[in-house]
């Protein structure tokens, strides 16, 4: 079994058997069958079938089989010199890999280690001609994943200690534990009284000073006890105990054996571990003929996603401190449909209903109000019969809007308005009269009319705006009017001093709000930027709105601003747009925009966007909520996620958002990457931009939580990637479209997490991916009662 760089062992641990271990090398344990209880350095945890854990050099282990079934344990000892040659920092490193970390975001890396570990076992017990190569490859993959995700500096054991004085005391104790140490001495060094220090030490470590010191000395003595020929008195003296008698008493209290008996037993265990009988594994194989089959199962267990450790670009670590901020409200949502009559189409109206229920809609954005009277209306109007109203077909929509308190956000270009004939202009006013007559001022109070003014024609625009304002307010002063902001990239200046005076002195005072559109793709195209300079367009819209808002405030303008339509950098190529997942880009910018503007808009579906968006902007993929057959696009899931967020903001940065609502916490993590959209066609590039994230939140209270996790990335929630999985030249049919629409969504997982000494979590976030965590406290008594009631209900129902 001996190899140059590692050793593989298999052992059957009988029912109710207990074995003691003292590790001389880093060792990976894997339970192939049965269940064990593991005590690792006084920490106890279960190790069930299919689970693994890593023991570090000089770890003391007690493995116990508390069941009536024999357990089959396999383990790999990795040579220290080999590890040091492969990873020079190994001498200062421990590996923290335990089964419970499945709940802390490390399930993927643990599964990868298990996969390669079982491949190592398969190669070791197999007879493949490539045996040595397969074992070497598998071992190196195991080490890569271990080092990348589970390595920590040995001093990291103190990271959970928040008090600097306690940290200092622990360092002092560890460096001098072989010498006589009194608590009063340590307290004096820290300028604390003995009582204050004792209370603080217990609060931070969970142990009394004397207990901690005794356990530390006992652990340090194990190496001498097992590997040296020192007498018990010599070991006691060299490890800080006053006498051999005291050492024996304390040792038996913690290990339930005398030091001499423990030494004999560990030597026997050591000899057994190093020199198991040659036929032991053969006997195990005879009793469990499918051992290789079980290894094969874990080595090639299907996984939803798979990646190599080399694709992870880097790791980021954040220690989040809570700093409560004033409550931030979400901006109002404008959903563009082009023309009001488009909502008469069943699919479009169903999409609106879905948005109202799941996201919340403030305004329906329209750009046209061409009524197109029905044939019945024309006949009845010709015969002067008062049966059908020219706006009657909108009544169902208007009734729905009034019921849900949704307004209309009507955009009109003053240039186009100037060219309309009087009949069409009258039609606009007649529609408002119809709404007032049948739905009252309460609905009109939710109407906004935004007039778009060309930056170089502000004088003409002023006259038209005042004309519109006069007629509209004759119908209802409750209708709000606004104008577009005539500032543009790159200098964001008025074209002339005269234009500035007209806008600020004549128009703004008569406005209720201001509006703006932002399309960074046009700026990017016109500026001839190289692909390597794409990062200059990072948060382009947010920075633009921030600049404009500050400039207007400098003029004394404090009107609410509506970002009617905006975009991130994208491409004019349809395939590139499909592969260019930008979830985190949109989320981060939306969260920041919500803080400085009153509302922001996006399009209901792709068909309406393409129909009403003028060239050349239609070449770019905008912020659209639905695709064909009601398939939700990433922007929809972003808005749904933002709607889900509630409570007080505790922390916010360019990488995360932490909220607290009563005793529940929400943590949003994202990985924003700005790059040329054309690179999204390169799968290897996309894989290389994933990032490993480690989060620590010390201030989350210690208790049991239910942790709900949502993963939103190009593999979970991006309909284009799901569509690519259909490998066919022919167009997909209705059934396939419906399948995509119904199954494309973020991935949800649910588990229980016990928080002790703060919340810690690790995960891999895909390029421009998002992870949402929700921690909800579990009331154990209530949950047990609910489980009992549910089981009773099931018995009665299915009896």
Automatic annotation (TrEMBL):
This protein's record includes keyword Cell division: no
Q: Name one Pfam family in it.
A: HTH_18
Which SUPFAM superfamilies does the UniProt record give?
(Trans)glycosidases (SSF51445), Homeodomain-like (SSF46689)
Domain HTH araC/xylS-type per the UniProt entry, residue ranges: 167-265
InterPro entries per the UniProt record, alphabetical: GH, Homeodomain-like_sf, HTH_AraC
Swiss-Prot/TrEMBL keywords: DNA-binding, Transcription, Transcription regulation
Q: Which GO terms describe its molecular function?
A: DNA-binding transcription factor activity; sequence-specific DNA binding
Instruction: Name the chain's protein.
Output: HTH araC/xylS-type domain-containing protein
């Amino acid at each position: 079994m001996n190899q140059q760089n590692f050793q593989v062992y298999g052992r059957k641990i009988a029912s109710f058997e207990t074995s003691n271990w003292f590790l001389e090398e880093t060792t990976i344990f894997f339970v192939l069958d049965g269940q064990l209880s593991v005590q690792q350095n006084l920490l106890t945890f279960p190790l069930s079938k299919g689970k693994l854990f890593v023991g570090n050099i000089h770890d003391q282990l007690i493995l116990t089989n508390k069941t009536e079934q024999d357990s089959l344990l396999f383990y790999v000892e990795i040579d220290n010199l080999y590890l040091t040659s492969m990873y020079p920092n190994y001498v200062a490193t421990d590996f923290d890999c335990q089964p419970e970390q499945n709940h802390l975001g490390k399930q993927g890396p643990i599964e990868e280690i298990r996969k390669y570990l079982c491949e190592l076992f398969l190669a070791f017990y197999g007879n493949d001609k490539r045996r040595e190569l397969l074992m070497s490859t598998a071992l190196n993959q195991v080490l890569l994943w271990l080092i990348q995700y589970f390595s920590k500096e040995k001093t990291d054991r103190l990271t959970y200690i928040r008090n600097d004085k306690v940290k200092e005391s622990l360092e002092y104790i560890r460096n001098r534990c072989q010498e006589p140490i009194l608590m009063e001495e340590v307290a004096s060094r820290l300028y604390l009284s003995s009582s204050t220090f004792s209370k603080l030490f217990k609060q931070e470590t969970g142990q009394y000073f004397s207990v901690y010191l005794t356990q530390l000395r006992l652990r340090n003595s194990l190496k001498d006890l097992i590997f040296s020929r020192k007498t018990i008195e010599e070991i006691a003296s060299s490890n800080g105990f006053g006498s051999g008698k005291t050492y024996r008493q304390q040792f038996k209290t913690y290990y339930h054996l005398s030091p001499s008996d423990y030494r004999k037993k560990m030597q026997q265990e050591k000899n057994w571990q190093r020199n198991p009988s040659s036929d032991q594994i053969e006997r195990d194989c005879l009793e469990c003929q499918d051992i290789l089959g079980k290894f094969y199962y874990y080595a090639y267990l299907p996984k939803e996603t798979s990646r190599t450790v080399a694709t992870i670009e880097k790791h980021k670590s954040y220690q989040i401190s809570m700093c409560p901020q004033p409550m931030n409200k979400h901006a109002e949502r404008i959903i563009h449909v082009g023309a009001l009559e488009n909502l008469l189409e069943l699919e479009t109206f169903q999409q609106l209903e879905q948005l109202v229920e799941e996201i919340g809609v403030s305004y329906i954005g329209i750009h046209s109000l061409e009524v197109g009277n029905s044939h019945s209306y024309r006949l009845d109007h010709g015969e002067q019969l008062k049966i059908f109203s020219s706006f009657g077909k909108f009544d169902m929509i208007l009734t729905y809007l009034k019921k849900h308190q949704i307004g209309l956000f009507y955009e009109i270009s003053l240039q186009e308005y100037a060219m309309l004939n009087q009949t069409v202009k009258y039609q606009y006013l007649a529609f408002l009269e119809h709404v007032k007559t049948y739905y009252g001022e309460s609905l009109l109070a939710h109407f906004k009319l935004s007039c778009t003014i060309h930056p170089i024609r502000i004088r003409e625009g002023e006259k038209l705006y005042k004309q519109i304002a006069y007629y509209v307010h004759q119908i209802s002063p409750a209708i709000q009017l606004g104008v577009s902001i005539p500032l543009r990239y790159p200098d964001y200046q008025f074209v002339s001093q005269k234009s500035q005076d007209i806008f600020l002195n004549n128009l703004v005072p008569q406005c209720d709000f201001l509006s703006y559109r932002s399309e960074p793709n046009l700026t990017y195209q016109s500026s001839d930027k190289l692909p390597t300079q794409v990062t200059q367009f990072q948060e382009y819209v947010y920075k633009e709105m921030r600049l404009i808002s500050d400039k207007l405030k400098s003029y004394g303008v404090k009107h609410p601003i509506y970002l009617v339509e905006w975009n991130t950098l994208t491409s004019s190529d349809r395939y590139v747009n499909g592969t260019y997942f930008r979830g985190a880009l949109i989320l981060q910018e939306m969260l920041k925009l919500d803080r400085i503007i009153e509302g922001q808009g996006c399009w209901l579906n792709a068909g309406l966007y393409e129909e009403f968006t003028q060239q050349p902007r239609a070449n770019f993929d905008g912020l659209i909520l639905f695709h064909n057959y009601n398939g939700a696009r990433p922007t929809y899931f972003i808005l749904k996620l933002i709607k889900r967020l509630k409570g007080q903001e505790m922390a916010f940065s360019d990488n995360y958002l932490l909220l607290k609502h009563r005793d529940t916490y929400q943590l949003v993590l994202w990985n924003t990457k700005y790059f040329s959209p054309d690179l999204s066609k390169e799968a290897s590039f996309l894989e290389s931009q994933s990032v490993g994230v480690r989060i620590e939140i010390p201030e989350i209270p210690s208790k049991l939580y239910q942790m709900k996790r949502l993963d939103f990335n190009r593999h979970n929630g991006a309909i284009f990637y799901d569509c690519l999985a259909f490998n066919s030249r022919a167009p997909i049919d209705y059934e396939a479209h419906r399948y995509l629409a119904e199954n494309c969504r973020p991935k949800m997982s649910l588990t229980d997490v016990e928080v002790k000494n703060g919340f810690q979590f690790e995960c891999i976030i895909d390029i421009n991916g998002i992870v949402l965590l929700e921690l909800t406290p579990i009331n154990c008594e209530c949950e047990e009662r609910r489980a009992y009631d549910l089981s009773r209900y099931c018995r009665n129902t299915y009896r």
